[in-house]
Amino acid sequence: MKFRLTIISILVVSISVILQSCSEPVEYVEDDTSQTSYTTGSIRFIHSATTMEYLVLDYRDLDTDSYEPFLNSAQYRSQYGYYSFRTGLREFAAFEPNTSFLIAWTSFELEEDKKYSMIAYDYAATLNPGFIVLEDTLASADSAFSFIRFIHLASDLDTIIIKEADISDNLVELNRKEYSNYINLPAQTYRFDVKLKSTNEILLANIYATFLSGVTYTALVSGSVNGMTPGDLNINILRDASIKYITVD
């Protein structure tokens, strides 16, 4: 009897092993060590706020949700970028140098393969700067032509007119914080006047600018005519296409 029980026990164990060996195999999945691919857009920063000669700029990191250093000493009338950032809601904060005093903040949706200009300007005379964010063109001017966009960011002026000197027609008419479309102009040297619309007073005369074939420009009017900001009224003409692209985040 004992011998039969032993044989039965052996048979049970054998059947169990056979059944386990016939069950579905466990699927082995190798860990995915490849990096997640991100879409990106490009941002250029232009410091056009005369109330602050220098600005410190930070950006919010999308992974850590904390602010990281971006530009340590951005100077008035200078541009920086373009910088490649991951797409999404991007946030930037500006500080007075060597302090933690927040003086401006902005957020905007950065879209894939698009270019943007983030511009610091005098929000109001003698007050802290603000930001304006504009989408830049991806197109290129035809041969023998150039693109030019004008932006009115002066602190104490209402509507201004920008025109070619000695030509009666106005080139653009802009309210404060307003900007023009990209204008297609023959590539050559121009002489501009900036006038106050309400009085027809010439505020800036004989501003010479040479626009090259196939190049895109942004012209920013900033400063003050009545001494309400440290900088006098001026027009700053910057090339869009001459800037190095840098990957940040």
Word description of this protein:
The chain has one domain (40-247). Mean pLDDT is 85; it is low at 1-23 and 25-29. The chain contains one helix and 17 strands. It is mainly beta and 249 residues long. A hairpin with a 6-residue loop joins strand 7 (115-122) and strand 8. The chain has a five-stranded mixed sheet, with no helix packed on it. A four-stranded antiparallel sheet has the order 3-2-5-6, with no helix packed on it. The chain has one helix spanning 2-21; strands at 40-48, 54-60, 67-75, 79-86, 88-95, 102-110, 115-122, 129-136, 145-152, 160-164, 170-174, 183-186, 189-196, 202-210, 216-222, 234-239, 246-247. Helices cover 8% and strands 48% of the residues. It is globular and about 55 Å long.
In short:
This protein is mainly β. It is built from one helix and 17 strands.
Query: Helix-strand pattern, N to C?
Result: HEEEEEEEEEEEEEEEEE
Low-confidence stretches: 1-23, 25-29
Q: Structurally, how many domains make up the residues?
A: 1
Question: Tell me, what's the shape?
Answer: globular
In total, the number of strands is 17
Strand content: over 45%
Structural class call reads: mainly beta
Question: What is the count of helical runs?
Answer: 1
Strand arrangement in the largest pleated sheet: 8-7-1-4-17
Radius of gyration from CA coordinates: 31 Å
Ends distance: 78 Å
| Biggest beta sheet summary | 5 strands, mixed
Q: Portion of residues in helices?
A: under 10%
